[in-house]
Amino acid sequence: MMELRFCPQCSAPLTDKIIDDRTRRVCSAECGFIHYDNPTPVVAAVVEHDGLIVLARNVGWPRTFYGLITGFLESKEHPADCAVREVKEELDLDATGVPQLIGVYDFAVKNQVIIGYHVPAAGTITLNQELDDYKRIAPENCKVWPAGTGLALRDWLRSRGIEPQIIELPPRSEAQSE
Questions:
Q1: How many domains does the chain have?
Q2: How far apart are CA 142 and CA 5, in angstroms?
């Protein structure tokens, strides 16, 4: 993660200061700015297409890793609407029902909070420029990863009475995201 070095209000250098028992980045010119480094909300979709789960590979990921469809929550956007939007943008699929909340998950390595939804969808899959491959897997054959969006997929599978196999994640570089 890139560390914030200058105040976005007055451009003075930031310095570390203990506030509410935590180290925060604050303005050295004392303009009042405090950087709280709050996590970014990300929405993940367990996409069900013709009874199969769609997993996709981001262009920057290792060739063997596939994950859920994800995207950043926009200002004033409902998370369920974000899930539908991301499925349309990344796979060109249309949601066929109301997205169902699976759960909310901490993804500390990227300072994100992941909001997982199940999104039933229909149409012909067409990948956007962010993705370079996809696969469709029967729910009972899905394997999950022990972090981030893998936990949402795990919980959705468990809600269907399926206990998934857990796989190990490949080593992560700073350029990769979930």
A1: 2
A2: 43
Range of the domain at 11: 1-37
Domain match, 46 and 76 both = yes
pTM, two decimal places: 0.83
Q: CB neighbours (10 Å) of residue 115?
A: 22
Could you tell me if 56 and 29 lie in one domain? Answer: no
pLDDT tens, 92-111? 999 998 999 999 999 988 89
CA atoms of 102 and 114, how far apart (whole Å): 10
Give the whole-angstrom CA distance, residue 83 versus residue 104.
13
pLDDT in tens, 11-50: 999 999 999 898 999 999 989 998 888 889 999 999 999 9
In the block, tokens 């468990």 appear at 158
**How many CB atoms lie under 10 A from the CB of residue 39?**
14
**Does residue 175 lie within any of the structural domains?**
no
